[in-house]
Amino acid sequence: MCRLFSITSTTALSPIKAIEALDMMKEGHDGSGVGLFLSDLDGAFSRFRELPILSGIFTRSGMRRLEEYMSAQGFVPRYQLMLETHGEPPPGTPAREVYLIQAFEPPPEWNILSADMQERNLTQVRLQLRHMGEARKDMVVFSFWPDVIMIKEVGDPMDIGTYLGLDREELYARRIMAQGRQNTNYGINLYACHPFFIQGISTMTNGENTAFVPIKEYLSRQGVVGYEGYQSDSEVFTHILHFTLRELGLGIEFYKHVITPLQDMDMLDHPDRDLLNSLKQACRRLIIDGPNCVIGCLPDKTMFMVQDSKKLRPGIVGGRSGLYAFSSEVCGLDAVIPERDKAKDFQPMHLDTAIVSPECKEVRICRQTQPLPRPH
Amino acid sequence: MPANSAVTPSTLSQRDLPWQIHWDLHTCTLCGRCTAVCPVNAIELGVFRKRNINVPPLGSQKPSSESSVYYGIRQRTAPAYACVGCSMCNLVCPNNSIQALKSETTDMLRFHRDQGGQPRTRGGRRNLSDSVLDQIKFMRISMLTDPALDAGRHEFEIRTLIGRILPPAQAIKAGQENGWVPPVREIYPLMIGGMSFGALSPSMWEGLQMGVAYLNEELKMPVRICSGEGGCPPRLLRSRFLKYVILQIASGYFGWDEIIHSVPQMKEDPCAVEIKYGQGAKPGDGGLLQWHKVNRLIAAIRGVPPGVSLPSPPTHQTKYSIEEAVAKMIQSMSMAWGFRVPVYPKISASSTSLAVMNNLTRNPYAAGLAIDGEDGGTGAAYNVSMNHMGHPVASNIRDCYLNLVGLGKQNELPIIAGGGTGKNGNLASNTAALIMLGASAVQIGKYIMQAAAGCLGTEGDRCNICNIGRCPKGITSQDPRLYRRLDPEKVAERVVDVYLGFDIELKKILAPLGRSTSLPIGMSDALGIADKAAAERLKINYVV
C-alpha cells in the first residue's frame, strides 16, 4: 500500500521532514519509490516566484534538446538547480544523468496573453517536452509551473532523500506532499508515481480507483489540455479536481460530491439537493470507486484530505497553529509534530473533506451533508 | 397405416418429427388428462389392435392366433399436429407414463412447415444456445491493493439513469439560470422489456405489474416495466403505479388513442416513453398479434375490431427517415407530457445502429437508445426472421458505447441493451457483461417469462407457440380456460424472487471488482474472453 504524508506550514520546512514521516510508516509501504510536491518555496526559488519552474530528469542529450527547445520557444533560463547525487544509487534506483530544477522566464509576447492562456501554454510546453522525452527516452518532465517543484524516483524514500541530498535550502517549502511507493497497479513508470500535477493542482492517493478506465476515457475526451497520460489509476483524481475547480468553477467543497456523491436518503435531507442531484447525474462519469484516500494541494495552497465513500483507507490530520500535517498513519504525524494536541487529531470519514487553509490555523471539516456555498 | 396405402409428400412417421411421444402401456391409467391438456392436439386416444399367437406344445395342436384390443395414446404425425415438446402431458400424468423426447436426428418436419404456402410462424427466440455473453468472464479481481468488498454487508449503489444527461458545465449553468433540464429517471438497471397486453395474457400482465409495484413500494427497488405495443389498461393509466411503467409506441400505434385521452387524468407521469422502431427477434419486421389472440378485451384496449390479425407495419408510416422520426416523434411525445418524460427510441441491433446513435447525440430531446439484439424474443414472427435476421448485441453495444466515448459523451445518452440476456440462465453475469461493455441498463423479456411464470420455451425449439394463443401455461394466451392456470399473485412473487436473487448475484460480481459506488458502465478492463477474435472485436482482454 502507498503511504502518504503532507505538511502545510507557515514556516518553510525541509522535504526530508516528510520523508522521515514516510520512513516512520515504512511497515505500510514497500519503499519502492518516492514522489515529492513542493510549493510555496522559500529558498533561492522564492526570488522567482512568478516564473515557471521546470522539474524533471534528463540525460545529457536530453538536456541539450531541452535547451534547444526552450530557446526556440523564447524562454530565457534563470535560476538552475541540479541535484547532485551522493555515492552509488540505492538498490533499485537507476543511475540518472541530470536531476534538473530550473526557472524559466517566458517569452515577452506572453505578457499580453490572458492568465488562462498563459497557463494553457505552460501546460502545453510541459506536454510537448514529455512527448519528446517519451519518444527518445531522454527526458522525464514532472511539472512546469510557478512556485512548484516535483521530484520522483524509484527506490526507498529515505535512501533517495540522502542520495539526492534533498535536505537543502533551495528545496525548503511551506507545502510539501510526499508519497512513498512506485505505482504497481499498472506498468512501473516514473509518470505513474504520485503526486500528480496539473496547473497548480496536485493530489496523491493511497488506494485503487476501480472506476479508472471509464473515467479516463471520459476525461481524455473533454478537450482539456493536460488530460492525458494516465499511467496510474490515481491520476484521474488530480484531473477530476482540476475539472471541478477549473472547468466547472466549483469550490473544493464540491469535490467530494463529484467523486463520491451522496446516496438517495442523505440527498433527500440535504438543503442543496436539487443542485447536488443534478451534479450527481451530470458528473456520474467522474464517480470514483474502490478504496481511496486522497490528499491534495490547491493553487491557493489549501491542503485537503478526502476518503472514498466507504472509508476503506487510513488517513489522519493533526497539528498545531502554523503547522498541520496529513498522514496515512498516526506514527507519521507523531514523527513530525509530536508536540501537537493529539485529542484534536481528526480521521476524516466517508462524508468528510478535511481542509487546512494556507494560514494553517485550524482543520476545517466539510461534511457532505452540510449546506454548500453557492457556486459563483 | 397399411403398408400399401398412398403416401403424400408430407406424410411423416413419428420418427420424422422433432418431438416424439413415449407412452407406457403398463402404467397408463387412461385418465385422458394428457390428451385434454395438449395445446396442439398432438396426441389422441388410440385404439390399438394386437394379434396374439398361441403356439401349443410340439405336435399336439396347430398354432392359432387371436386379436385383442387395447387403448392408449397415439401421436399424430400430420405437420399441423406435430408435438411441440411442451411436455404438459408429462406434467399432468399421474403415473409419469408419458413424455415427449427430442429426436436425436434431424427431423423431417422442418421441410413441411409451409403447408398452404404459409411459412412457419412461431414465438420464442432463435434456436441457438451459444452466447458470447456467457463466454465473458470478470477477471480484474483486485488482489494487491484492494480489500475485496463484502457483497452481503457493504452498500451498493445499483442504480442507473434513463434520460438525457447534460454535460456537467451545462447542467450547472441550467441550474443557475433555471433553464430546462431534460427529465432523468434513476432506476434499477434491469428492466422488464416491452411485452404487450395482448401478446401476454391478462394474468401474466397483472402478475408482472404487481411484482414490479411490490419491488418499488415495499423493497424500494426502482424496477421499471415497458408496456410493449398494445396499449395499457385504463385503470393502470389512471393509477399511481403508472410511474413504474414505460409506455411503448410502435408503428401500429395500438392503444394510443386511449393513452393520449387519459393524459389529463393521469396522477403520475409514466417513467418514460419508448418508441419502437425495431425488435431484435425480427429486425425490420413489425409487431404481430395473430387473430387467435385478438379477443374482445384486447380489441377494446387496442382500439381495433376483434378476431383479426394485427400486423404492425415494419416502419412508422408517417415518417420517411429515422432523422425525421427522431425529430418529430420524440418531440411530439415529449410535448404530450410537457417535456417531463424521457422519450427514447428502441431499434433492433444492426450495422446501422451507429448511424442512429450519431443522429441521437445531436438531438437534445433524445433520452437514450435501446438496442435489441438478435437473441431477443417475440410473441410471433416468421421463423426465418427469428433464426436468420439480426445482429449480435455485444459488439453493437460496444461500438455504440465507444462511439460515445470518442465524442466525449459516454452515458449522456444511455444505451439500453436487450436480447438474449440470461438465455442460458446466466442473468446476472450476462447483465454485468453488457453493462461493462457500455450499456446503462438491460431489458429482459423471455427470462422473466421463464423464471416468473414457468414459460416452457427453450433455445431447443420447445413449445414456442406463443403466437397462436395456446400457451399451455397461460402466459401468452387470451383464452380464459388457459390463462386461469396462471395465478397473478404467484407470478408477482416470482418476479420479486428473480429480482432479489439477481441483486445478490450482481453484488457477488461487483464486490470482487471493487465496484460499489456507481454502476460499472464501460468498465471494460474487468472483462476477459478466451476467444481472440471476440476480444479484439469487443476491445476487451484476451485471456486463456
Give a description of the structure:
The complex is a heterodimer of chains A (376) and B (544). Chain A is of the alpha+beta class. Chain A has one domain: 4-Layer Sandwich (Glutamine Phosphoribosylpyrophosphate, subunit 1, domain 1), CATH 3.60.20. Chain A contains ten helices and 16 strands. In chain A, the strands form three sheets. A six-stranded antiparallel sheet of chain A has the order 7-2-8-1-14-13, covered by helices on one side. In chain A, helix 1 packs across helix 10. The longest helix of chain A is centred in the middle third of the chain and has 22 residues. With 544 residues, chain B is an alpha/beta fold. Chain B has two domains: 96 residues, Alpha-Beta Plaits (2-Layer Sandwich); 411 residues, Aldolase class I (TIM Barrel). Helix content of chain B is 28%, strand content 17%. In chain B, the strands form seven sheets. An eight-stranded parallel sheet of chain B has the order 9-19-18-16-15-12-11-10. Chain B has a three-stranded mixed sheet with strand order 6-20-21, covered by helices on one side. In chain B, strands 1-4 form a two-stranded antiparallel sheet. In chain B, strand 15, helix 10 and strand 16 form a beta-alpha-beta unit. In chain B, helix 13 packs across helix 16. The longest helix of chain B is centred in the last third of the chain and has 23 residues. The N and C termini of chain B lie far apart (57 Å). At the A-B interface, helix 5 and helix 9 of A face helix 4 of B.
